[in-house]
Amino acid sequence: MKPSALTTHVLDTANGVPAEGMAIEFWRMEPEPALIARAVTNADGRTDAPLLPPEAFLPGRYELRFDVGGYFAARGSDAGYLGTVVLNVGLKAGAGHYHVPLLLSPWSYSTYRGS
C-alpha cells in the first residue's frame, strides 16, 4: 500500500508569483470538525512541512481553509470578494501523495489534484 500524505501550493496568478505569507488552516471533518494544523506559505507558496504527513494520515473528509482576502489585503491589493477559500477533500488510504494546488486572484480560484 502506498503511503499517503497531503501538501499544498498556492500561486497568485493575478501577480504571477507564489503566494508567500498566506495563512492556511487544515481541518479534519470526521467524526467532528477538529483543527489539525495551521501554516503560512513560504517564499515558494508552499508550507514548510506537509499539512498531513504519512505518519499522521487517516482516511476521511478534510478541509483546507486559505485566507485569500487577508493575503491580498496584506499586500495592499484589492481583496476582491474572496475571503476564505474552503476546499473540502476526501482522502483515501493507499492512494499515495495528495497535493492540492490553489491558483488564485482576488476574483477567482481553481484547484486540482496535483502530483
UniProtKB/TrEMBL annotation:
It holds the Pfam family Transthyretin. Keywords: Hydrolase, Purine metabolism. Residues 6-114 form the Transthyretin/hydroxyisourate hydrolase domain. It is an enzyme of class 3 (hydrolase). InterPro entries: Hydroxyisourate_hydrolase (IPR014306), Thyroxine_BS (IPR023418), Transthyretin/HIU_hydrolase (IPR000895), Transthyretin/HIU_hydrolase_d (IPR023416), Transthyretin/HIU_hydrolase_sf (IPR036817), Transthyretin_CS (IPR023419). Substrate binds at residues 9, 46, 112. It catalyses: 5-hydroxyisourate + H2O = 5-hydroxy-2-oxo-4-ureido-2,5-dihydro-1H-imidazole-5-carboxylate + H(+). GO terms for molecular function: hydroxyisourate hydrolase activity. Its EC number is 3.5.2.17. It comes from the Bacteria. PROSITE patterns: TRANSTHYRETIN_1, TRANSTHYRETIN_2. One of its GO terms (biological process) is purine nucleobase metabolic process. Homotetramer. Belongs to the transthyretin family. 5-hydroxyisourate hydrolase subfamily. PANTHER family: 5-HYDROXYISOURATE HYDROLASE, URICASE AND TRANSTHYRETIN-RELATED. Catalyzes the hydrolysis of 5-hydroxyisourate (HIU) to 2-oxo-4-hydroxy-4-carboxy-5-ureidoimidazoline (OHCU). This is 5-hydroxyisourate hydrolase. The lineage of its organism: Bacteria, Pseudomonadati, Pseudomonadota, Alphaproteobacteria, Acetobacterales.
